[in-house]
Write a structure and sequence with these properties.
280 residues; Rossmann fold; six-stranded parallel sheet; four-stranded parallel sheet; binds D-glutamic acid
Length: 280
């Protein structure tokens, strides 16, 4: 099917919200930072919980899902889209740029820059979904920023389901055992930085830090993403001084999604509505 290039509508930029999407809860770690740095902005979030995880899907499916997610956000008349998903950023960015004419921010470049800068010895670890690690996008990006870097990667496929399952598991012994097994891949590599190359992983921060050890600095790209968004031409803060609205949408049941959104954002009353994403 062919869709003509989709643009960001005609309303004045300043009245429009910022759109953010991910496969599920993970992108809320990015939304949280954007809301902290730009509290006056209206934000619209879409989490595709029904079809998560994205990280085990083919490139073709990831592209199709990402296009549908962005079409939904454009229907909400957003002024920019934040791809709060490393899997989409690493597998579908070129296709998204080709298809949509709207300011975009992805998470891979800010994370790579922060990791390259934070490492003293240039030995950098990256963890992410199978699709992100398989794309090799992080090593390629990091080496462009820092030619002397040596990058070590490991996919951690069980982390996303553990996060989506609910907060009881975020600090659980089971998660520690799984993390120990995954992170043993970095034994002997002498990394001093570990990039959390999936927006779900900051929700497992404590377990990952404990397992990686104190000598390894974890990089969560959310802050760099929010900072970059603020400086983007025509996109940066327009807030009127009032607190911005946060509207959250999910493709699955809001009953399960809503308490987890509240937990992540630290806001008691969040509005969460369901969307039939296959329509888009
Ligand atoms: N949180 C996303 C990422 O940053 C997607 C994880 C998934 O759905 O597999 O990669």
């Amino acid at each position: 099917m062919h869709f003509s290039k989709i643009t960001a509508g005609l309303k004045p930029m300043s009245n429009k919200p910022i759109g953010i999407f991910d496969s599920g809860l993970g992108g809320l770690t990015v939304l949280r930072e954007i809301h902290r740095m730009m509290p006056g902005e209206d934000l619209v979030y879409f989490g595709d919980s029904r079809r998560a995880p994205y990280g085990t899907k083919s490139k073709e499916t990831i592209i199709r899902f990402a296009f549908q997610d962005i079409r939904f956000l454009l229907e909400k008349d957003v002024r920019a889209v934040v791809i709060a998903c490393n899997t989409v950023s690493s597998n579908a960015l070129a296709e998204i740029i080709e298809e949509f004419d709207i300011p975009l921010i992805e998470v891979l470049t800010p994370g790579s820059e922060a990791g390259a800068k934070a490492s003293a010895n240039g030995r950098i670890g990256v963890i992410g979904t199978q699709a992100t690690i398989g794309s090799n996008a992080y090593p390629e990006k990091i080496k462009k920023i820092r030619a002397d870097a040596e990058v070590f990667q490991k996919s951690c496929p069980l982390f996303v389901p553990l996060v989506e399952e609910g907060k009881d598991l975020w600090n659980h012994r089971i998660t520690e055992l799984i993390a120990a097994r995954y992170l043993s891949a970095f034994n002997g590599t002498d990394i001093d930085v570990l990039i959390l190359g999936c927006t779900h992983y900051p929700l497992l921060y404590n377990v990952i830090q404990k397992t990686a050890g104190r000598g390894v600095r974890l990089i969560d790209s959310a802050q760099s993403v929010a900072a970059r968004l603020g400086t983007l031409d025509g996109v940066g803060p327009h807030g009127t001084g009032e607190k911005g609205n946060i509207s959250i949408y999910t493709s699955d049941s809001p009953e399960k999604f809503k308490p987890l959104c509240s937990e992540i954002l630290g806001i008691d009353d969040v509005s969460v509505a369901q969307v039939d994403i296959e329509k888009y």
